[in-house]
Each structure stands twice: as C-alpha cells, then as structure tokens.
Amino acid sequence: MYGLIHRAMREMVIDTLGDPAWLAIEKEQDIGPGEMIGQSVYDDALTMRLLAAVSARFDKPMDQTMRVFGHYWVRFVSKGAYAAILNFTGNELATLLRNLDRMHQTVRVTMPDAVVPSFSVISESAQELCVEYRSQRSGLEPMVVGLLEGLVGHFGLAGTVEQLIHPEGPARFRINLA
Amino acid sequence: MTIALEPAHMNRLFPSHMVVDLHLTLLRVGDGLCSAIDGPRVGEYLLDYFHWSGADPVADFARIAASGEFLRLACKQDRALLDGTAVPIANGYLLAVSQIPAMFSIEDGTLQMSDFGLADSIVAGLLLVAMQRALLDESSQMAAELAAEREKNVYVINRGRRFAGYTAHDFNNLLSIIKLNATRIEQAAQIPDDVRRRNGIILETAERGSEIARSLMTLSNQKHDSPQIIAVDALLAEQRSYFEHIAGRKADVMLDLHAPGVTVKASTSGLINSVINLVINARQAMPDGGMIAIGTTLEPAAFNPVAAAFGRTVGNWIVITVSDTGYGMTEQVIRHAFEPFFSTKPHGSGMGLASVREFAREMGGDACALSNPGAGATIRIHLPAIDAATGADAASALPAGDKPAPARGTGISVLLVEDEPYALEALSEMLESMGFVPTCATSVEEGRAHLESRHFDILLTDVKLHEASGIDLASLAWRDRLVDRVILMSGYVPDEDTLDSAWQFVRKPLDVESLVHMMRANT
Ligand code: HEM
Questions:
Q1: Rounded CA separation A83/B131 (Å)
Q2: How near does any CA of chain A get to the CA of B127, in Å?
Q3: pLDDT tens sequence across B281-321
Q4: Which of B273, B334, B355, B369 is the most buried (most CB within 10 A)?
Q5: Distance from CA of B343 to the nearest CA of A (A)
Q6: Strand, helix or coil for residue A132
Q7: Which atom of ligand 1 is nearest the CA belonging to A144?
Q8: DSSP-derived 3-state class of residue A141
Q9: Domain ranges of chain A
Q10: How close is the Cα of B410 to the center of ligand 1, in Å?
Q11: Which CATH superfamily is domain B227-403 in?
Q12: Same fold flag, B7-120 and B227-403
C-alpha cells in the first residue's frame, strides 16, 4: 500500500499511545522515515506486518485494530488537506458513499498503483443503509466496518454497522441509524 | 433519432441544467444549481440571475439553440459560470450547462461533487488540484521529518565521536605517564641490561598505543565537513526555496539579508542544517501559519554580546536570525531551550536548538534565543566574520602586544599546567633534572594564580583540562604579557583559528627529547 496509509497508522499510534510506542515499533520492525513516504508504494505484506505490530502494542486482535484504524482513517482524511476532498465527495452519508468510487478513481490518477475499493449503496431508508464493498484484496472487511462507523460519526449521526452474511457475492454491510 | 431524458437523468448528466420558455422564463431548475446558487426559481426571468450583454436576448437564445453555439451564463451574485449550450424543445429551450467553479478549488467547501454531472470532467480536475495540494503539504511535512531525522542521527554520531575522542584523550594521557616514566628509567645511569630492554619494549608499545589513540582522535574530530569560507547572504538566498518548502504552505518565508559579501569560516552543511532546524522549530511554533524571517546583520565585536563574552573587541560578527510569529517562549523555556533532548513539543526530538548551539560554538561563535510569550521567538546565531583585508576572523583577533622577550640560558622558568597528577609529576621531575625550573599547576585556576604572582619564561600547558581550556589560560597569559613563550600540549591538534601564530605546539604523548629541544631553542 502507499506510504500514506503507513503515515496514518503512525499518527494513530502516536495519538493513542504516544511517541515512544511508535519508536518501539520502528525499532522492532526495523523501519524509519524511509517506510513513511506518502507517495511510495510498499508491499502489502509490510503494511500487514505494521498492522500486526500495532495490534500487539494495542493489545488487541488484528480485526479490532483494523476496525479502529477504519475510524482513524476517517479522522485522518477529515483534517488537513484531505478534508477538502472528503467534504467535496459528500456532505451527507449516502451521497458520500455513492460518490466514493468516483473520488477513489481520481485518487488513482495521482497514485497509479493504488488498489482502490468499490462501494455501492444497494438500499437506503431513514433507518438504514445497505452497502456493498468490492475489492481486489481480501480480509479488509473489519476495516470497512470501522470506516463506515467512522463516517457515521463524521456526520454527527448515531448508529451501528454490521457485516451481513452474504457468502455468494461481495461483502455487504448494514448501517443501522438510530 | 429522438432521445427522451427523464428529469432524474438530466439531473445526473447536467445537475445545473435549466428549462426556459421562448421568453426566457424558468420552467425547471436542475438539483445541482439550487445548491450552488441562491435562486433561480421556477417562474422567474432567467436574466434576473445572469448577466447578458446582447440587446435582444430572446433573439440571441433562438440563434444559439438553432446553431448549437456555445452558451456562457455568468452569475450576477458571485463569480460562478455556467457553460454549455441551448437545445430547442417544444415552446422553449433546454439549457444544458455545467458549472465552471470560479476558484477552481474545493477548499472553501462550497462545491459538492453531486453538483456536477457524472460525465463532467471538471470533477476530476477539482479533485486533482486538491490531491496535489494534499501531496505538497505531505511532502513538505516529510522534508521536515527527514531533516529532523538526519539531525538526530548526526547528533548521535557526534556523541559517539565525542565519546571516542574523550576515551582516546584519556588513553593518551595514561600513555603519556607511562612514556614519561619509562623515559626517566631509560635516562637513569645504572640499570641492568634486561631492565633496559624491557623498558624499551614498554616505550615502543606506548608509542604504538599513541598511534592508535591519535587516529581515533582524528576520526572523532570530524564533526562537520571541513570549514570553508562562506558568503552567508548568498548561501541563504540560494537555499530560499528549500527553506520555503520546509516552512510549509501556511508559513511565509522572508529573507532580510543585510550582510552582503560578508564571509565566515564555517561548515556549509552545518550552517544550512542549523537554519533548517530553526525553520522547522518556527513552523512548529505556528500551527496556524505566520511569518518566518531569516535575516543577517553585521555587528562590530565591540557591540556584540557574544564577542564580549569571549573577551573579543576587534573585528566584526555576523548575526544570523530566524524569527517567527508563533507562540513564543517563556523565560523558563528559553533557559533550557538549548539543552539536548529538551523539547516543548509532543513529538519533538529536542535536538534542534542543541545542535544549532553546538554548531555555532564549534565555529567559534554561539547561539541564543529572544522571545516573549505570545509574541514569537527569535534565535540568533553569532559567528565571527572574516576581515576582508587580513583574512583573519574576529575570534582569533587578539589585541596586539609586545612579542616575546629574547632568549635566556638554563634556569628557564616554566609554568607547567597538567591536570593528570602522575604526568605532571613525571614531567616536572624530568624538566628539573634537565636544568629547567618548573612550577606545577593542576588546573587553569591554579595556573592563573601562579601567573598573577610572578613572570614565567614559558607557559607549558595541556589544552584539555578538566574545567577549562589551556588555550584560555594561554590567551590570558599572552595578552597580559605574563609569559614570554607559550607551548601547548595535546593529543588533538587544536583549531588553528584559536591559536596565536607565536605559540608552539607539541603532540601528546610527549616525545621528551623534542620537547626539551623546543624549550631550549630561542631561549
Ligand atoms: C479523502 C479521502 C480518501 C482518500 C484520499 C483515500 C485514498 C485511498 C487510497 C490512496 C487507497 C489505496 C491504498 C493502496 O492501495 O495503496 C484507498 C483504499 C481504500 N479506501 Fe480510501 N480514501 C479516502 C477516503 C475513504 C473513505 C471515506 C472510505 C470509506 C469507506 C475509504 C475506503 C477505502 C478502502 C476500504 C480501501 C482499501 C482498498 C481495498 O479494498 O483494497 N476511503 N483509499
């Protein structure tokens, strides 16, 4: 994945556990600023290794850490220069989810090696939204739960997110709005 | 072929479309237009909202619709534009137009992706501009991170070097004691041959040990690239865009250089790194942006506080300042600001100011901070400027005194300053046995006390003493003409700039013969 993702991960650790925790991860994984270059592409294996190291620091299982990272990613892109992109993509939940693919496709123009997801809103009501997620990668579903929860919070809504059992097709998630 | 488009389709393709009758009264307004512009509403006249320069708009629209000409509507309320064309429909026109954002920026949050058609390439353009912004921000942040990281590494390496240097220096002192005592044994009249032979081995091994210590000291001494003559203003002006990059998008960098052509003898990378460190600090002190001013001034030594602290009154000093408009520093923070690992920032390495001061001091100057909480901070780097006429820098310019008195015979009085008691004892005994009259001191303080009480022919002093430098003692003795000659002893070759050309130097561990030869010559 792009170093941008590693940078967000680093921020998450520093914000949550402080500088020393990240320095310890850097030391134990033998990495430094060279692995944090936003525009460099790193092997997904490195990203996963970092995530495992972060999980160990958080003392949480991997899927929990991925979910927390999902929350953090929404916070990461809702401040600084990425905020304009997020806000432009949508000023309410369903619109943003519908426009995500278009945004990610444009992101790919500047980051040509990005493997971006595809989201579609398959049903929408005042109480719930059902979303389908397609990806070339596998195993990121816990992060998607966190991302969707993060977006619910971003729009000041209350609600829960669950992954639906849908063995045949793409992963499905339901956002239950309170 | 006729294509029928439902309003929902039209909203997706042209969210800002409008339908008007032949008299330009609005019959329908696309969803996207409503959120982008306040009005226009169904039933109202189109040109109440948009500028139109033609005298007969009704005829103009009929012509555009018939020919498929380009249509531009400029909004009266703001600078938004709608570009497209008019398509004839029954009893009116479909205005198939798209928004052209006035600012081509999504930063103010007024534009939404859904205000544009799905096939509208402006969306990609707007996103790309925003992405570019984000990437630029990130790269300037990264440049600062990498510079800080490099600084941290340099600091750690320097610490290692210094440690190696101190160890080598102490090792050298021990070798000095061994060598001096072995030389005394060698000079004794009656010693058995086998003792003389073993003593020879001790002397030879001590000599090999000193070679190792010497190379360690040479290595440990190379902290920065070797000092060069630098025109400071030109160097800073050259690095401007680098400083701007590191300052980030929110901070403006202003160069205020008033020392054109003034040169200093310093390490180029050390000077650039120091200014970069200060720019990074300034940027971090101004999270919401502000102004970073990098300036230079030339100050006569007589008016420069650092020069005064060094006891120097001759020549000029260049002062390089980096000021910010950030939150400033309290008195207490200023007191600790230059200490290594001291940082007020949550992610600060605490290396920045410490290494700036270290650099400045190594170059014969100093660094200090001025600040008022809330009113920004200024860091000043003071460096001795090179005198364009003589080529000497202000740090080495000592007031002229009479040159040493002429030679005298044996009975030469020597003030011997050495903080290693065994070395002092051995050297003093040896000098005494050779007809010199040594007086011993183990510190600069003690040495100064002897100098105040009487005159000496020679000051023979170690350079690195525990509390202070033998060079300072030598400067004082030389300036006040308390000695006729100065001989410095050290494992290091001291920086030439700190020495007077009339002084002499012997390398440690001492080669007694050449030392005595040097002491007897010219006297
Ligand atoms: C300004 C906002 C955003 C930017 C700049 C952005 C950028 C990116 C980039 C560059 C990648 C590719 C990583 C790689 O392959 O190296 C990515 C992946 C991804 N993004 Fe976003 N993203 C943003 C917001 C979101 C949001 C709000 C969601 C919420 C659902 C999201 C969901 C994902 C997911 C799930 C992936 C993983 C791709 C996969 O399945 O393989 N992104 N994003």
A1: 10
A2: 7
A3: 888 888 888 999 999 999 887 777 776 666 666 678 899 99
A4: B355
A5: 13
A6: strand
A7: 35
A8: helix
A9: 3-59, 92-177
A10: 88
A11: Histidine kinase-like ATPase, C-terminal domain (3.30.565.10)
A12: no
Domain boundaries, chain B: 7-120, 227-403
Q: Which atom of ligand 1 is nearest to the CA of A108?
A: 10
Residue of chain A nearest B108, judged by CA positions: A84
| Cβ density class B307-332: b for 16+ within 10 Å, e for less | beebebbbbbbbbbbbbbbbbbbeee
Q: Locate B497 and state its tokens.
A: 């700039």
pLDDT tier, B400 (very low <50, low <70, confident <90, very high otherwise): very low
CB spacing of A84 vs B109 below 8 angstroms? yes
Does CATH place domain B7-120 in 3.40.640.10?
no
ipTM of the prediction = 0.91
Query: Does the beta-carbon distance from B133 to A84 stay under 8 Å?
Result: yes
Residues of chain A contacting B145 with CB distance shorter than 8 Å: 33, 36
Task: Please answer yes or no on whether A85 and B137 come within 8 Å at the CB atom.
Answer: no
Give A41 to chain B, closest Cα distance, Å: 14
Q: Domain spanning A92-177: which superfamily?
A: H-NOX domain (3.90.1520.10)
Q: Would you say the C-alpha torsion A24, A28, A34, A36 has a positive or negative sign? A: negative
Specify whether the backbone of B484 is left (phi greater than 0), alpha (psi in -120 to 50) or beta.
alpha
Strands (DSSP E) found in A22-170: 118-124, 128-134, 159-164
CB-based contact B320:B380 (threshold 8 Å):
yes
What residues does B385 pair with on adjacent strands?
Answer: B264
Place of tokens 């940078």: A7
